[in-house]
Specification:
heterotrimer; A mainly alpha (401); B alpha/beta (321); C alpha/beta (267); A: mainly alpha; B: 8 strands; 45% helix; elongated
């Protein structure tokens, strides 16, 4: 069943949701990366919660004028307007009061959302009829996904990505060094507003699929996931789009393959699964890699210290060192150095002397910066350079017996 | 001589005062608050002029999701009698009613129904499907419960209530007969009722229809994507051509169902809007229980190929219904 | 060609205001109600290296930032090469303090320098080999050419400072404004930076540095500008960097012996 779902064989509705969700996942991942880089991740949560009163007011307005209270364009317009109001309040609070940003975010989020809930209660007592369905905007309702909705998501997502392509450089610069950006004449606050506007667009477009409570996850988790895999910001953006798209696709497929699986939350769980995998297994920044690195490092340190101790005739106290030396065939069972061990120890000592020369010499600054006690000098200097240094420090020294 | 006449008149006046007082008190209408529109309607039918009924859930309101407002609570704490449905229909209000029952007279009118007549709940093993108003056969029993509650609240009017109840029950019998006569003419392979949520179970039971809902018994359950796919395949397989939207539930899922069937080349249309958990607009015929069921039966029958009078049982349905 | 009179009415001798790379008049900046910089005038001499000095919290960085429009001033006029600031942005290069940046940001050394070329590249311009080459060239000038692919968090403080300078060089500006570039850096970095700055001066560029180390002022700079919320003194090192002006700027914070030592060094 799952395979069928992944291959889009489960029918029109499932396919529509999967494709719509994927488009949303990609745009949310890309947009959210800039939020993440700018350290404004939680502002997206405030924005999404601020959409609720707008949706309700739009419904009330449309229904009072005799129209269909649940016209999607109208509701999304309403959500965008109240999200803008929320953003404006946030900016005003941080700029004009002594409130720190996180407190301002909390206030705006809860006040707007609370107001929205009150409006939901008011709506249910209106004799207008057909109001059920607005609560679907809280957690998403993909069962009701129509072709028109998928179009809205596709167009919204495409426009968002296009705009991001256009202003990616200013946004990156503002995120990295806003003072320098201001000095360059970039309108920092306008660029921030543009970024927030894009976040709002993604939020509004995503209300139907994952709902306003969960859209923040779709914006932030892919960016955090991508961060584990690369040190280049443009790659983070691309990987985040990929992570968002994949988790949305798989999540939508999964929710279509078995009964009683809500799409929005499943997508978020998929996103989180990708995050956990990255956290644990990413080659440089992952936890497992760090643990392995630590053990490897520990072994290398012990080995080197052991060799240096041998070279200088000092006794070795640590068991781990002796064990490693024995395993490497550098030392006999009784702690006496073998021939191989003596040779390695002599080299180790010589390398230390070579390094000392390198580190005191200005011309080898780049190489010197790489010294960490373990690095092989051959990986940093050419043979000629090493020969030159050898000339300065004289021949190799005998290892004491 | 005239002093004695005066004294006699005075005495009679004084002695009649208590009777006047009793009359006056008995004439203040019984204040009733009911949750669903259907219960409110039953209370009005039985109570007539002797009661004022305030219904909390108006047309188009979903009782599975209803949250009581402050003015609701105030009304209920001042009412002489509070009627709610029970059977987990207003699950989210259950605790509130149990608390309220300590201070006022609160009756769950559907709780007393014999359990062997009820369908079991799809999610909770020990609960039942609460949509008992969908078949007048069961609703008659609820009406009797309402009559009992009213009588207990105002025993002096027991006779009036009994007479009204009898009239109403007779009307319900008419409704039952109408339903049976109409729906029996639906071709057998058309006897499938596809709706937004599983509210029509009892209806299906009464009239031999298979009932399929996108959502389960409660609208609070998620309409799963998987369910939509399942239903689309069913619609195509069984060549079902008409589905139904509900007045108190979003119609988006139904539209998605129709689009899904269309993608497979099978045309499905909306047979009509049904009143599932709420009645029609206040003041209209569809805003009464009988009107609601009349509308449902006529719409369903008409859409699925039965011979139906256009304006329903008594010609009272609004045109274009 | 505005006539920007000083707040005390004088116009600086020997230099028309039109060609001063940076002319500030009546600049006041405050945080809340407390002024950090109050009614400050400054006229930077073209083609020279000027040091802005003063005690901690004297408003040195604030003044620079306000002049660049990074923080909003309460009042003041700024002219760059005779025109408004916004018209001349392309001719100004700013090197901020190291602490203002998150060094865990996912970007490499070369990416930072390429940011200096963003104006040239525009929004959609493709990054070509010639841009990379220019970036490497700037990195080489500061001695960081071998570090191009490193993530910036892996660098030492001095190396980070040099990368910022390389970014400024990539802009090809005429006026360079640096905020405490020598603070907390190693000797090699200090030497590298001052060499670059001197080569800029030799090429006719103007350099303004917020400087923290009084001992090196005479050695590195041509002009000084002393500030302690208000302007204290402005002029060449021999004119304005005297024990009187230093005492006035630093109040009681400089021991007389220190000042004498400095004056002797200038002697």
């Amino acid at each position: 069943m799952l395979i069928d779902a992944l291959l889009l064989q489960l029918g029109y509705n499932a396919t529509l949701v999967a494709i719509g969700a994927t488009l949303l996942g990609i745009s949310a991942g890309v947009t959210g990366t800039f939020l993440f880089l700018r350290k404004r991740a939680l502002v997206s949560d405030a924005i999404s919660h601020a959409t609720l009163p707008g949706v309700c007011l739009a419904f009330i307005l449309m229904a009072s004028f005799g129209g269909d209270g649940r016209n999607l364009i109208g509701l999304l317009l309403g959500s965008a307007l109240s999200a803008t109001a929320g953003l404006w309040c946030l900016n005003w609070l941080t700029r004009n009061t002594r409130l720190a940003e996180d407190a301002a975010i909390g206030s705006v989020l809860s006040v707007f959302f609370g107001f929205g809930i009150v409006l939901l209660t008011v709506i249910q007592t209106m004799g207008v009829g057909r109001q059920a369905g607005l609560e679907g905007f809280l957690l998403g309702s993909t069962a009701g996904m129509l072709w028109a909705d998928a179009m809205v998501i596709a167009v919204g997502g495409a426009v968002t990505l296009l705009l991001i392509l256009l202003i990616r450089r200013p946004m990156t610069l503002v995120a990295f060094d806003p003072e320098y950006a201001a000095a360059r004449g970039l309108p920092v606050s306008k660029i921030d507003m543009a970024m927030m506007g894009l976040v709002m667009a993604v939020t509004v477009v995503g209300l139907k699929i994952v709902g306003l409570i969960l859209i923040v996850a779709l914006l932030i988790i892919p960016a955090v996931t991508a961060r584990f895999w690369t040190e280049r910001s443009d790659h983070v953006v691309l990987l985040a789009g990929l992570a968002g798209g994949v988790s949305a696709y798989v999540g939508a497929a999964l929710s279509a393959s078995a009964p009683n699986l809500p799409t929005g939350p499943i997508i978020v769980l998929m996103s989180f699964a990708l995050f956990m995998i990255s956290l644990l297994f990413a080659p440089n920044r992952g936890v497992l890699a760090a643990i392995l690195r630590h053990f490897k490092f520990q072994r290398r340190v012990h080995l080197r210290q052991g060799l240096l101790a041998l070279a200088q005739g000092q006794p070795i106290y640590e068991n781990l060192t002796l064990r490693l030396l024995r395993k490497g065939g550098l030392v006999r069972a009784d702690g006496v150095a073998t021939d191989k061990g003596k040779a390695c120890a002599a080299k180790a000592l010589r390398d230390e002397h070579r390094w000392a020369v390198v580190r005191s010499d200005q011309t080898h600054e780049a190489a010197a910066a790489l010294y960490d006690g373990l690095r092989k000098i051959e990986s940093v200097l050419t043979q000629d350079q090493i020969a030159e240094i050898d000339r300065r420090i004289g021949g190799p020294q005998e290892v004491p017996a | 001589m005239w002093i004695r006449q005066l004294a006699l008149m005075g005495l009679m006046t004084v002695m009649s005062l208590p009777m006047v007082a009793v009359q006056a008190r008995a004439e203040a209408p019984l204040k009733i608050v009911a949750t669903t529109g259907m219960i409110a309607d039953a209370a009005r039918q039985i109570g007539g002029d002797l009661v004022t009924v305030r219904g909390l859930m108006g047309p188009g309101v979903d009782p599975h999701a209803y949250r009581q407002t402050r003015s609701d609570i105030v009304a209920m704490t001042r009412a002489d009698l509070v009627l709610w449905h029970g059977l987990y229909l207003e699950a989210q209000m259950g605790d509130f009613f149990h608390d309220l029952a300590r201070k006022r007279q609160v009756v769950a009118v559907a709780e007393g129904l014999p359990k062997d007549l009820l369908r079991s709940h799809d999610t909770y093993a020990d609960k039942y499907d609460p949509h008992v108003w969908m078949t007048p056969v069961l609703w008659k029993l609820v009406v009797i419960e309402v009559q009992k509650a009213l009588t207990e609240a105002r025993p002096e009017a027991a006779d009036v209530f009994a007479a009204n109840a009898e009239t109403h029950l007779a009307e319900l019998d008419q409704l039952i007969a109408y339903g049976e006569s109409v729906l029996v003419t639906v071709p057998d392979n058309n006897k499938v009722l596809v709706t937004a949520h599983d509210a029509f179970g009892y209806f299906g039971q009464s009239y031999g229809f298979e009932v399929l809902g996108i959502q389960g018994i409660s609208t609070q359950s998620e309409a799963g994507l998987n369910r939509i796919g399942e239903l689309v395949n069913l619609l195509v397989e069984r060549q079902i051509t008409a589905v139904f939207v509900e007045s108190s539930v979003s119609d988006r899922s139904m539209r998605a169902l129709i689009e899904g069937a269309a993608a497979q080349g099978h045309d499905v249309r909306v047979g009509g809007e049904l009143f599932s958990d709420a009645m029609g607009a206040d003041g209209t015929y569809e805003g009464t229980y009988i009107g609601m069921l009349d509308h449902n039966i006529t719409t369903i029958g008409g859409a699925l190929g039965a011979d139906v009078p256009e304006r329903g049982m008594a010609g009272k349905l609004s045109a274009g219904s | 060609m505005l006539d920007l009179a000083c707040s005390d009415g004088r116009v600086k001798q020997g230099q028309t205001l039109e060609d001063s790379p940076l002319a500030i008049r009546g600049l006041t900046v405050s945080y809340g109600q407390k002024p950090a910089v109050f009614s400050v005038d400054m006229t930077v001499e073209a083609g020279k290296m000027t040091a802005i000095i003063g005690p901690n919290g004297a408003g040195k960085s604030t003044m620079l930032k306000a002049a660049l429009g990074i923080v909003p001033p309460v009042s003041g006029q700024v002219q760059v090469f005779g025109k408004t600031l916004d018209a001349q942005r392309a001719r100004i290069a700013y090197v901020p303090q190291r602490a203002s940046v998150d060094w865990d940001f996912p970007t490499r050394v070369i990416d930072v320098v390429l940011m200096g070329l963003y104006r040239e590249l525009g929004l959609l311009g493709r990054l070509r080999a010639k841009h990379r080459a220019k970036a490497i060239e700037c990195l080489d000038r500061v001695g960081m050419g071998d570090f191009a692919s490193r993530q910036i968090g892996q660098l030492s403080g001095g190396q980070q400072q040099r990368v910022f300078l390389a970014r400024a060089l990539a802009q090809g500006a005429d006026l360079y404004l640096l905020d405490e570039p020598f603070a907390g850096v190693d000797a090699a970095t200090e030497k590298a930076i001052i060499t670059v700055l001197k080569s800029l001066r030799a090429a006719g560029k103007t350099v303004v540095v917020v400087h923290h180390d009084l001992a090196t002022v005479a050695e590195y700079f041509d002009n000084v500008f002393l500030i302690n919320t208000r302007k204290v003194a402005e002029g060449t090192v021999s004119e304005a960097f005297t024990s009187e002006t230093l005492q006035a700027a630093y109040g009681g914070r400089l021991a007389t012996a220190q000042v004498d030592k400095l004056a002797l060094a200038m002697g």
